UniProtKB/TrEMBL annotation:
MF-aspect GO terms: hydrolase activity
Protein name, as recorded: Alpha/beta hydrolase fold-3 domain-containing protein
Source organism per UniProt: Panicum virgatum (Blackwell switchgrass)
Any Pfam family the entry gives: Abhydrolase_3
PANTHER family: ARYLACETAMIDE DEACETYLASE (PTHR23024), CELL DEATH ASSOCIATED PROTEIN (PTHR23024:SF135)
Alpha/beta hydrolase fold-3 domain sequence ranges: 134-351
Region (Disordered): 1-20
UniProt biased composition (Polar residues): 1-11
Length: 381
């Protein structure tokens, strides 16, 4: 069962905001916008989900074939280092993770799975609404680091509405600059042992951007911004590929897949989609903005956008499946190198639902297919 203090925590967290402040808008369970402009991200959904959002502490002793290190700085980075080296002891490619959460919530250190719970308690909790997107980052990216193998670097992104786009894009670019500085032994990692470990293990000439949901948008947007620069400005760092997973690409008009009746998803609803984008896009922008619709008429023609090879993962039962596929078609029409993996029978960010990945054979197989496709893509670029 859930920890004993959950009920007490929940009672404290659902009370009215202090100081007489009033809630003027909210995304149920996830955040509340108050009348003074501040944002309360206290979880107000089922109390059983509270432990799932606890951060995972770093560890220098290997667990399941990898170590985990934090690199505080601008921006904060979290580094997964597999124990295995590349072929012949070569350095490993780098996967830079830009987390999802609708630009408004989540953190790359969230857990989602408590090792102390019994299988029975997991089945009890699973139907409750677990945290969006980020909860399983730790488990998915630890697994990916060992499977590729690669150095996985997760970036702590700013959150809207306090910091709207393009702040998230700027942070993604800053993370790449910090990686370059660490590789060059310049100020970027400081004296932290983790910086030296990263420097010794990472081949920054093969950096792959990866992100799910809104993080998928950032894969496109960060790659496009870096691609505008002369390659010599970034050497030895090179963005070798992008991997948007179920990117949050939409239009102001609903797509057919958005209008289809689907079972409620624990990860994604139209209300979340609409409100998170309203909080994150520049003031006055619609979902046709290039940040959310790079294939639309308000965006630069894709043929003119410098992009690396892309592997786009599209969930067959995703609410925004159709606009994801439209993005892929637009990349092809623009002459870009793009591979598409359709996750059959899966919904938005399915791979981050550790309950389903571990317990449902079909979901587990689809997660393996996704990891295999990422490994193959990286091996060829």
């Amino acid at each position: 069962m859930a920890p004993a203090n959950v009920d007490q925590q929940q009672k404290q967290e659902v009370r009215a905001p202090a100081g007489g402040r009033k809630v003027v808008d909210e995304v149920s369970g996830w955040l509340r916008v108050l009348d003074d402009g501040s944002v309360d991200r206290t979880w107000t959904g089922p109390p059983e989900a509270l432990p799932l959002m606890q951060p995972v502490a770093p560890y220098a002793e290997p667990r399941d074939g990898h170590t985990l290190h934090d690199l505080p700085g601008e921006p904060n980075l979290r580094v997964y280092l597999p124990e295995v080296a590349g072929p012949g002891g070569a350095r490993l490619p780098v996967i830079l993770n830009l987390h999802g959460g609708g630009f408004c919530i989540s953190h790359p250190s969230w857990l989602m799975y408590h090792q102390g719970w019994s299988q029975e308690s997991i089945f009890f909790i699973a139907p409750a609404r677990p945290p969006l997107s980020a909860p399983v980052y730790h488990h998915f990216y630890a697994r990916l680091a060992c499977a590729v193998p690669a150095v996985v670097v997760a970036v702590e992104l700013p959150l809207a509405p306090e910091r709207r786009l393009p702040a998230h894009i700027d942070t993604g670019v800053a993370a790449l600059r910090r990686l370059r500085a660490i590789a060059l032994s310049e100020d970027g990692g400081g004296p932290a042992p983790a910086a030296a470990l990263l420097r010794g293990a990472a081949d920054v000439s093969r950096v792959f951007l990866i992100g799910d949901s809104s993080g998928g948008n950032l894969v496109h947007l960060v790659a496009a911004q870096v691609g505008q620069d002369d390659a010599s400005q970034w050497a030895p760092l090179r963005v070798a590929g992008g991997i948007p997973i179920h990117p949050g690409f939409v239009r102001a008009a609903r797509s057919r897949s958005e209008l289809e009746k689907k079972p409620d998803s624990v990860f994604f609803t139209l209300d979340m989609l609409d409100k998170f984008l309203a909080y994150a896009l520049p003031e006055g922008a619609t979902k046709d903005h290039p940040f959310s619709c790079p294939m639309g008429p308000l965006a630069p023609p894709l043929a003119s956008v410098p992009l690396p090879p892309m592997l786009v993962s599209v969930a067959e039962d995703d609410l925004i499946r159709d606009t994801n596929l439209e993005y892929c078609d637009a990349l092809r029409a623009a002459g870009k190198e793009v591979e598409v993996l359709v996750n059959r029978g899966m919904s938005h960010s399915f791979h981050l639902n550790k309950y389903a990945v571990d317990m449902d054979p079909t979901t587990g197989e689809r997660a393996r297919e996704l990891i295999d496709a990422i490994r193959s893509f990286i091996s060829r670029h």
